[in-house]
Write a structure and sequence with these properties.
Elements lengths: L2 E5 L3 H6 L9 E5 L20 E3 L1 E7 L8 H4 L3 E9 L1 E2 H9 L5 H4 L5 E8 L10 E6 L2 E7 L7 H8 L10 E3 L7 E2 L5 E6 L2 E7 L2
Parallel strand pairs: 1-10
Antiparallel strand pairs: 1-2, 3-6, 3-11, 4-5, 4-10, 5-7, 8-9, 8-12, 12-13
């Protein structure tokens, strides 16, 4: 299985990091070794002094597909989840400045939090899902999938041009504004609507 991640998919997040608005979705991958094991804390890696949380809606692929048209994309997933794309922002900045890939800043061990899954049938419209991240009981990120530059089905259409999607693959659909540094002993809790889907401690 692979983790396919979409960057710069919310306008306000693009603004907060002073990035250029992309013409096409920004796509990068994380290996399965980046998945934080259940009930384990997130350990800040020793190669970064500025790891940021990025909460994201997740989609789990349920059948194999290639060159999937947008109108058929809804048939390729039946679960919606929530997770964190941890990012070593200082390392990412160094890599971007040199025009190098981001993987060392995005795909390190433990950099992908995957929370509980909800049936897609729970949602009247996947393009209108509220989600949020709390750090130490304070809401720090607040998003809605209606604000995505590329909606879920458009993402599936786009990435399936380049990668065959397989059962169990997970798509991270991008983060809204409010990303920020995590510190040891922080408690992070993620919600879709009013349902908590993960809770982790930072070490």
């Amino acid at each position: 299985m692979k983790l396919i991640c979409i960057g710069r998919n919310y306008t306000e997040h693009i603004k907060e990091l002073e990035n250029e608005r992309p013409v096409d979705p920004v796509v990068f991958l994380k290996p399965d070794t980046s998945i934080l094991l259940k009930k384990q804390p997130f350990f800040i890696p020793d190669f970064s002094d500025d790891v940021h949380h990025e909460v994201e809606i997740l989609v789990k692929i349920n059948k194999v597909g290639k060159h999937i048209a947008k109108k058929f994309a809804h048939k390729y997933y039946d679960q919606i989840g929530l997770g964190i794309d941890f990012t070593a922002r200082d390392l990412q900045a160094q890599l971007k400045a040199k025009g190098l890939p981001w993987e060392k800043a995005k795909a390190f061990d433990g950099a992908a939090v995957i929370g509980e899954w909800l049936p897609k049938s729970d949602f009247e419209n996947v393009n209108n899902i509220n989600f949020s991240l709390f750090k130490n009981e304070t809401k720090v990120q607040d998003g809605n999938t209606s604000l995505m530059l590329w909606k879920i089905d458009e993402i599936i259409e786009y990435v399936s041009k380049y990668f065959t999607l397989k059962i169990g693959d997970i798509i991270f659909t991008g983060t809204p504004s409010g990303v920020g540094k995590v510190l040891a002993n922080d408690k992070l809790k993620g919600y879709i609507e009013d349902k908590q889907l993960f809770s982790i401690t930072v070490k």
